[in-house]
Amino acid sequence: MAKPDENKEFAKTVGKRLREYREALNLSQEKFSGVMAGTKRAVQNNESGKAAPNSNALFWLAGNGLNVNWLLTGDGPMAFADLAGTIDEELLADAIEALAAELDRKSTRL
Question: CB–CB of 64/32 below 8 Å?
Answer without folding.
Answer: no
